[in-house]
What does this fold into?
Amino acid sequence: MSRSLESWRLLLRWQYERFRPWLPMMVTIQVLLAVGVIYGLALLVPDIDRGTALYLATGAPTLSLVILGLNVVPQEVSQGRLTGRHDYWRTLPVPRLAPLAAEVTFWLLLQLPGTALALVVAAIRFDVGLHIGWAVVPAIVLVALTGAAVGYGLAATLPPQVTGQVTSFLSIVILLFSPINFPADRLPGFLQVVHRVLPIQYMADVMRGSLTGRYDDPAVLAFVVVGCWCIAGLAVSYRAAVRRP
Amino acid sequence: MALLEIDQLTKHYRRGKVANDGITLSVEAGEVFGLLGPNGAGKTTLIGQVLGLLRPTAGAIRIDGVDVVAQPAVARQACSYQPQTSASVDNMAPRLAIELVGRIRGGAPSAVRDRATELLAALDLHEWEDSRRPLSGGVARLVAFCMAGVVPGRLVILDEPTNDVDPLRRRSLWQQVRALADAGAAVLLVTHNVLEAERCVDRLAIIDHGRVQALGTPAALKAELGASLRMELTLEPDARVPGRPPFGATTTPVGRRLFVDLGVADLTDAVRWAQALQDGGTVAEFAVGPASLEDVYVRRVSDAEEVIDVAVA
It folds into this structure.
């Protein structure tokens, strides 16, 4: 166990050192993006009532965590596959999921300042009172890890040349057709059914619930569904990590 | 028992390309073993299988007697690797990259730091050790070598380690490769630089079209030629390749060049023959030298285009 943790820590350091000169710029962009999403989405909705405001305020961090997993992580992985870093890491004596863990941790830490600031800005902008409970910590970790595990599995399986397009497509679809920033009943019926199975609605729910104290579904159900997807995503990633063509 | 044993290794890619076709070889601890061959001969595929990145279609790979096709984690622990690309350095300052890999390979912090210092000094890399500026190709490659050598595995795999490296540092690099073997590692060295390999490896295999075409020490392989001298003739453009010389030596045409294997007794006849060809306008120039590993290589590797690449390198 300690060897696994040490591998994770050293690979995390590797990520940090790799990006160190650009970290201030990257954090700034994340902050601007997170805050921009709050203000930008508000422009789409002319009359913001309290319910809408809560959706926008809590949807923004969810959206950025989902985009982290399904867009940023896969693009990093596919770039690593093209440059050879991905294979080089695979030759190192580390547990197979240690690179994924290091990748997710790095990008999650990079994003947290923006996410936290976005919540503060949202609370002020929409005048919504957030009731942030302890469950926010497992919620953030679970949502980030689930998205990243699925994204990592995708990027490790798809040809790197098309990964960027696939993940961009996914991001747009998630932004427009997922009940993250609005309630599920606004979606066409068949999409509501689809979202009873996909993890996105439940990801939004665990985030919203842990930030406001009010869950759409029973909290346990939401956490369990996201947890199951997380395990499935990790299983796909593990298979991709041990695959030898 | 050899440290690395490869037995009848075969790798077919999905589209039917046969990259390795029944390769058998072994590398002992303390030995520098060269894997020579033209581009696309199957060398990198071979080491990909040893490292557990690729799954063999058939055959066995054992490290210290352990079947690493079944247990790739054993291979990762046993092998340290310098890839052909320098992606491993990854925009980091060289010392940092070297020490990080050393720690990941289980080295103690102070031992890793000392060893990194030793390697950076041996390869004269102090100037760049803390630099984050983009490294030149040769420096990046030397840093990648240090990453493979900082906490060396029992098997050290180096893929084209000297490409782009200047002549002086190249010499230092070979000393470090030898030092790894002297310290007990088995070194598997992939290269297409025949002249360097001749000086630096203990044994070698020439691989082409996925098969071992020759295997042995440089001296044994050269002895197979049965000739101690080699004449090289450069043909005039558009000149026809001359027929077999009257003294009956073996000739190998490679592009506009013609190689002739000679015994010392044939030297006078050969020079007279070549002089006549030059006077007749067929040959632009000719030279005679001792037979080298390159001659073995030229004879064993069938693809003439690739041979020219090697000679130029």
About this structure: Confidence is low (pLDDT under 50) at residues 303-313 of chain B. Residues 167-182 of chain B form the longest helix (16 residues). The two ends of chain B are 36 Å apart (CA to CA).
